[in-house]
Amino acid sequence: MKDALRIVGNILFVCALFTILFSYAMFQGGFVSWFLFFSFLPIFLYLIGFLIYPIKRWKVSRRFSHHIIEAGDSINATIEVKRSFPFPLYYCIIEEVIPQSLMKVDNRNDKYQYMHHPDKIYVERSIKRVTFPIFKRGFQLPYSITNVPRGEHRLKKIRIRTSDIFGFVKKEHVFAVSDEIIAYPSSHALKMSERFSKYEQGSVSSTGHHLTNTNVAVGVREYAPGDRFSWIDWKQTARKNSVMTKEFEQEKSTDILLIHDSCQIEGLNPLAFEATIEICLSLMETFQNQDSKVGLLSIGKKTVYFPSDQSKANKLPVNHYLTRLTPGGERTFSMNLKEEIKRIDKGDFVIIITTHLDDFLKQTIRRFTLRTKQASVICIQSEALISDEEQQLIQQLRYSNIPVQLLTEKELMKAPIEVSIG
């Protein structure tokens, strides 16, 4: 409707201008008045041609250097415009219609300096370029989007404005050009203070990366190529007159379950929530690189479970989920977590990642200790936004031998991030 009114208004304006000049020449007469009228004729013909020239028939496309990136990266794009008839145009303003999901920036670790004022990460992105096509049949305009935030970003429209050289007639059209950018959560290097692993005959934690416990021998066997010289049992070798080596107990891989708080609460800090996602992904990658089995239980609007038996090479399901994850749900994390206790197998290590602690959550975590070997909590929040009540709850959990680590902007801006889970 607006486009139709704009076209009618432009036609009326051009016709009125022509009528005024023609009337002036007719009533005034003389060389000057008719000279002005005929001098305006080429302009009038150009304006008529400009009015009927259909810019909506242009072929507009968009190309990205990458469609899948990591949050915080930059991406290069090119808008390409092709037209079949090279009608002379003085200028064109090409504007990318930016979706709301891109109206914030991700500076990796540096963004956490605004954790106390998360509104500072929101910006008004505007991508406009001016080109002078004249008689060109096609032209390209490159641009870049920096510090792309986590999420799936759909760019659907490109707006093109143009006008005649005098600015009498203006045209505008919005082209439907749909493309998608997927920005996976960024993963951080972590400095782990302890690695969860247990031996079958004891409960001593191990911080090594060995798959064989060379301290607990459970038997002897004949020597096999590849056995270490230090493994030879000399007493059994002399007794049986054959080279015998010690057989060691295999280290039992630990099943670790990460529980992520994806629930919506009043006053939720968006930067703290982003940090929980990045720490969750970083922990999964760290544990998988240590050959530990790690699963993920996300509790929010929906409860989603990724089992620990999935291969570390198949990260796409978890990455896709964490990319789209937003806080939601009407119930609190504490209430949902209480109902999910039955999902936790006995013997699992549980790491709860949240931005908020309350008394009901403290009681629920204590129940975990009756079903699991160990439960620990990672609470992520700005130092200035941690209430006295939460500080007391953290101390109470620690007094109950439940490890709690508080990650604030100070810890999150370090590289690597130090994480203590035991």
Describe this protein's structure.
With 422 residues, the protein is α/β, with parallel strands linked by helices. It has helices at 2-28, 30-52, 234-240, 270-289, 316-324, 333-339, 359-368, 388-399, 409-412, and strands spanning 59-64, 68-70, 75-82, 91-96, 127-131, 138-145, 151-163, 170-184, 190-192, 212-222, 244-250, 255-261, 293-299, 303-306, 349-354, 374-380, 404-407, 417-419. The chain has three domains: 58-184, Immunoglobulins (Immunoglobulin-like); 212-250, no CATH class; 253-419, Rossmann fold (3-Layer(aba) Sandwich), CATH 3.40.50.410. The chain is built from nine helices and 18 strands. The longest helix has 27 residues, at 2-28.
Task: Provide a short characterization of the protein structure.
This protein is an alpha/beta fold and 422 residues long. The chain is built from nine helices and 18 strands. The longest helix is centred in the first third of the chain and has 27 residues, at 2-28.
Keywords:
six-stranded mixed beta sheet, Immunoglobulin-like, Rossmann fold, 422 residues, 9 helices, 18 strands, five-stranded mixed beta sheet, alpha/beta
- Distance linking N and C termini: 65 Å
Rg, alpha carbons? 34 Å
Structural class: alpha/beta
- Please tally the β strands and state the result: 18
Shape: elongated
The CATH architecture of the largest domain is: 3-Layer(aba) Sandwich
Provide the low-confidence segments as ranges: 195-214
CATH topology title of the largest domain: Rossmann fold
Largest sheet: 6 strands, mixed
Oligomeric state:
single chain
Q: What would the average pLDDT be, to the nearest integer?
A: 84
Share of residues in strands: 25-35%
